[in-house]
């Protein structure tokens, strides 16, 4: 196979970046806001936004392969927010079908243990069934952990955590004073969708937007952020490596 000059330069630069980051600390948990699928579809001439979502789903496979190669143990992907559910029903139906297909494919592999994050009661029963089946099918996998955030909102997660915490306290017969005395950040974390998973070290957002939009609000208190311009379907391995390099160049003080 022949490569043009740009391809050769790209490969050389990618190899150099890979060598650089392998010599430094890598994040244990990476969160990714997969943004820009619809804008990618419009920019490339597709009338149907679903084409952008399909290309975005294919990019997930590449990202997970990159993480496998670098032994990044935990990945959280924001696939659909609670706000997104207010979009055109036809688009959401198509997107949910794409998500279901992608989750099935990932669940058929041996390396990723899947966990669904979000207000699943807001999703169609067919989507919930696929997510739960993937969780069950992969629960014995001991390799990497993949959190798929579908119907997810950071504020809603905190509301659900507080509600579930209070329900547990009530079931245990606690009075208000005792319940109040037990509330700590660690206790609230026990009721989050991500309970038992370490907080993200690095959060990446594509498409040029410089905000979290509610992604992992509680968990990102000490995360490093990397914002880049490419739409998610155009996100390259070299962009991922740049994010990791920038992560390594930062001094993480955790408030100290």
Tell me the name of the CATH homologous superfamily of one domain: Decaprenyl diphosphate synthase-like
Strand content: 5-15%
Shape: globular
In the CATH hierarchy, what is the class of one domain? Alpha Beta
The helix count comes to 9
Rg: 20 Å
| Count of β-strands | 6
Mean pLDDT level: 94
- For the record, give the distance between the C-alpha atoms at the N and C termini, rounded to a whole number: 52 Å
> Which CATH architecture of one domain?
3-Layer(aba) Sandwich
CATH topology name of one domain, in short, is Undecaprenyl pyrophosphate synthetase
The helix/strand class is: alpha/beta
Largest sheet, if any?
6 strands, parallel
- What's the order of the H and E elements? HEHHEHEHEHHHEEH
User: What are the low-pLDDT stretches, counting only 5+ consecutive residues below 50?
Assistant: none
Helical residue percent band? 40-55%
- Largest sheet, order of strands side by side? 3-4-2-1-5-6
